């Protein structure tokens, strides 16, 4: 299986930065997917899904958002925001389209699908709602048109601190505790997440992200975040995955989203909250079925 790492330049208000991406499958595959991770995670969270898509003739891009993983850190704390994440993602879409055109020797754009977990799903919604969007299908993993202030403050509580650990095993145990709502991943699953999301500093293990990404939580969030106009502007086929115990995507919000867009497909994961890790068969199978359903094209 073809796996490669790429870096491309993006622009922020203070200058340029580079976005890293782990990529799966051949460049000439007409079906292209971008997998966008959650707030404090990185693109390696999608290894199992990306491998399964590559086996089905997809080219898959799994970027690390700026300030996370192997991507550059920004020089100014306030520049970590959704406007920046959307601009970076649009640059990656352009890169993927140009790479496909060069490899396939055709000017036709690829069939582009977007799979986004939490923050990555919100970025996908913002892109899919824009006129002329290149996105053909959208998968939203535990993110919706109303996000409770309580759930956002919970996320802010753990990203606003920078714990350090003497061993990788201790860091793994920490991830299994703070992200227990990802679902029962087993030792192998938590080890995979730990091995691909740490950095070393003075011999200690730390989460592999810039602590400044927590700028969004510098002040307590007092009101729910609602993006109903964004949701109703999306016209592409959409699959929503919800952890049944999620505190971020409520059952009431999901019901209203489906009421507003009745063609939306929904899968709920019984033993997960925010957000299903997309590493287990019961999570992968509905995504693969949705993306490979030619009737929806």
From TrEMBL:
Pfam families: Abhydrolase_6. InterPro entries: AB_hydrolase_1, AB_hydrolase_fold, AB_hydrolase_sf. Keywords: Hydrolase. GO terms for molecular function: hydrolase activity. The keyword Hydrolase applies. It comes from the Bacteria. Residues 34-280 form the AB hydrolase-1 domain. PANTHER family: MONOACYLGLYCEROL LIPASE (PTHR43798). This is Alpha/beta hydrolase. It comes from Salinisphaera orenii YIM 95161. The lineage of its organism: Bacteria, Pseudomonadati, Pseudomonadota, Gammaproteobacteria, Salinisphaerales.
